């Protein structure tokens, strides 16, 4: 990493293994110069301070989309790539990419299924699935936790919620992995074509399911979204597909990474799981601290919807993106005492792991509940759990998750 202290710019390859395996050391070095910096590789201003990230996530002068207020020609943006037509079609109505009023309308129609009181009803099912998953490898004495445990539980839960058959879970994982690779730094054409094919197959699968649910509604989220209306307004098939893809992808992706990151953190720091998970209150506090300590998403971007002047003489032009460094903000020493330490129940607990503002993660209650249930059961069922090999993170800086987590007991 090279830091120009005068211009406050950095050269840092996000695909450098030293960086994506330990971004926190880089954050500390950058923060010693400035909490905000221009990242040359991304071509955008980035923000590491908790106060800045928290504020900018809520700042309505920034948005997840830009073409509702400007044209590609005006912004000098390249035209859409023909080989990404299916991927772009799925993204077109995604809650994650929309701004009001379109975002407000869609979120209102799907939000009810993800409020805490609704999610809480899933507790017995999540616990049963966790035990069954552990049963499949408990006698082996070793496991690669990501594939065997962290992935199957959340993908099964979100598929069941939506009404997608369980036998399609492997397909869901394959499609999701291919689409998420689009968020890697400088994704190549092969990655783009794979993501487009995944989006097309994903949409075809959902088109069939939507037709089935229109004929025979069931007690699932897809049927609820088909029949939900507000003042006579209902979701179109394109909106149903985009929303379902987002919920299926986001409904497991972050939880998979966070489950692996949390298990790694507990074992590397030699934490006593009996103390961490002794009751519901301590479990809730422990999961919240683990979410802060090693978040599954490290950068979230926003477009400037107008010309904006920020503190420190930072000028952002309409259409330019900014990078909000969630993982760095969660380790900000101005916000947290001893931020590199795990302190469950810390009085200064807060985090931006799930974002903030109108794009706060709709699946946050589900992700929290899944970890509050699955992690205590994992450590209780497998006494003597330990790291079998050094954990390594995936080459996907934005999505901060482990390539594999080999454990033994």
- Major β-sheet, in short? 7 strands, mixed
The CATH superfamily appears as Cytochrome P450
Would you give the CATH topology? Answer: Cytochrome p450
Give the total of domains: 1
Arithmetic mean of pLDDT: 92
Distance between the termini: 39 Å
Biggest β-sheet: strands ordered side by side in the sheet = 1-2-3-4-10-7-5
Label the CATH architecture. Orthogonal Bundle
Any chance you could write out the topology, listing elements then pairs?
Blueprint: E1 2-4, E2 9-11, H1 17-21, H2 23-31, E3 36-39, E4 44-47, H3 50-58, E5 62-63, H4 72-75, H5 85-91, H6 102-110, H7 116-119, H8 123-135, E6 142-144, H9 145-150, H10 152-162, H11 169-180, H12 189-215, H13 221-227, H14 237-268, H15 273-276, H16 280-293, E7 300-304, E8 308-310, E9 314-316, E10 321-324, H17 326-329, H18 364-381, E11 386-387, E12 392-393, E13 402-404, E14 406-408
Parallel strand pairs: 2-3, 4-10
Antiparallel strand pairs: 1-2, 3-4, 5-7, 6-14, 7-10, 8-9, 11-14, 12-13
Helix pairs in contact: 5-12, 8-18, 10-14, 11-12, 11-14, 12-14, 14-16, 14-18, 16-18
């Amino acid at each position: 990493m090279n830091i120009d202290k005068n211009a406050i710019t950095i050269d840092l390859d996000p695909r450098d293994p030293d960086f994506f395996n330990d971004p926190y050391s880089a954050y500390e070095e950058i923060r010693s110069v400035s909490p905000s910096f221009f990242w040359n590789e991304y071509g955008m201003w980035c923000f590491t301070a908790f106060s800045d990230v928290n504020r900018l996530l809520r700042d309505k002068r920034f948005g997840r989309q830009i073409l509702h207020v400007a044209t590609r020609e005006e912004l000098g943006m390249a035209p859409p790539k023909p080989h990404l037509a299916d991927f772009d079609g799925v993204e077109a109505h995604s809650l994650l990419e929309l701004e009001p009023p379109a975002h407000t309308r869609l979120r209102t129609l799907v939000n009810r299924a993800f409020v805490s009181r609704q999610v809480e009803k899933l507790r017995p099912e999540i616990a049963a699935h966790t035990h069954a998953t552990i049963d499949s490898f408990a006698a082996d004495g070793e496991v690669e936790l990501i594939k065997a445990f962290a992935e199957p539980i959340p993908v099964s839960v979100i598929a069941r919620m939506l009404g997608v058959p369980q036998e399609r879970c492997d397909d869901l994982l394959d499609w999701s992995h291919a689409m998420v690779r689009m968020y890697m730094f400088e994704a190549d054409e092969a990655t783009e074509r794979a993501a487009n094919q995944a989006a097309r197959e994903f949409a075809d699968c959902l088109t069939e399911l939507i037709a089935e649910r229109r004929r025979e509604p069931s007690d699932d989220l897809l049927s609820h979204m088909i029949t939900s209306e507000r003042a006579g307004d209902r979701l179109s098939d394109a909106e149903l597909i985009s929303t379902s893809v987002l919920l299926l992808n986001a409904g497991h992706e972050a939880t998979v990474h966070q489950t692996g990151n949390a298990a790694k953190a507990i074992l590397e720091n030699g934490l006593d799981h009996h103390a961490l998970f002794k009751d519901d209150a301590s479990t809730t506090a422990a999961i919240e601290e683990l979410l802060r300590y090693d978040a599954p998403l490290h950068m979230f971007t926003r477009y400037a919807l107008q010309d904006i002047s920020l503190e420190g003489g930072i000028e952002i032009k309409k259409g330019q993106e900014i990078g909000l460094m969630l993982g760095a903000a969660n380790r900000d020493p101005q916000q947290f005492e001893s931020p590199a330490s795990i302190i469950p129940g810390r009085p200064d607990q807060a985090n931006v792991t799930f974002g903030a503002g109108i794009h706060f993660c709709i699946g946050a209650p589900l992700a929290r509940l899944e970890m509050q249930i699955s992690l205590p059961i994992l450590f209780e069922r497998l006494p003597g759990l330990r790291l079998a090999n050094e954990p390594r993170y995936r080459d996907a800086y934005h999505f901060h998750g482990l390539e594999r987590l080999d454990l033994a007991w």
